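Two folds, back to back.
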Amino acid sequence: MAIVQRNVQIKASPQETMALLSDASRWPDWYPGMTEMDIAAPFPDEGGKVAFKVKSAGMSLPITETVLEYQPGKLQLLQIDGMMSGRARWELAPEGDGTRLTTTFDYALPGGVFGTIADALIVKRMNAKSLEEALHNFKALVERQ
């Protein structure tokens, strides 16, 4: 499994931050390359699903995320299935006059040793860059509201 973790300080309360984070219809507004959203109830609650495609390196890759745990203002834990498998953990903590958002992707690519090599050479860097861009965009959106 590969792990990519990033965090950002947001000048908004955990509740304001979670309101945007848990609105899957808004994910394409801040996460680069996301298209074709299909949201199934009871999202954002446990068991809810979001199916979408991510455009990356000239390809459109299908992903489904299922909510494993949802704690408003604190945590959104998602199971990732599709072009990769693993978990996406979005943790919010009050910090100063705002919120510290920490995101951890713990994932594996299919393809055994070839998937591991591809991840080490290319995918992990792409995922880290996308996550950094997403958090930058997310912070700007939350702080504008």
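---
second:
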Amino acid sequence: MALVGRLHPLIVHFPIALVMLAAAAEGAAAATGGRRWRIVGVINLRAGAAFAVAAVIAGWRLASAPGVDPTPLLEWHRWLGAIAAVLTVATAMATSRVERRSFRDLAIYRLALFCAATCVAVTGHVGGLLVWGADFLRP
């Protein structure tokens, strides 16, 4: 397996945390009206988008390595990861003028961010199922 594929378990945690933090910060910005929260959210979203692309590349390399069973759950994880990365990158690109937008544009940005965060969370959950199995938390 190539080194890039082996890095997937290390890289993947960064976009999960960064995109979740971006969504939480935007939620705080919406609740308080604080500009600082939006800045925190945008910075984390942009960093998360970069790491998401790296995680998808590494994940696809890992999934196509010899000895990895191409299960339906793995295929779901691969495609959900790709969709999550595309959503995250598109939302990050939309942050370039987020401060000068209308209320409608801001609402669309927030919706896109929360959809991207949800997709990242679901993808991470499916990845956890692949690694640890569905019974991991059961005693």
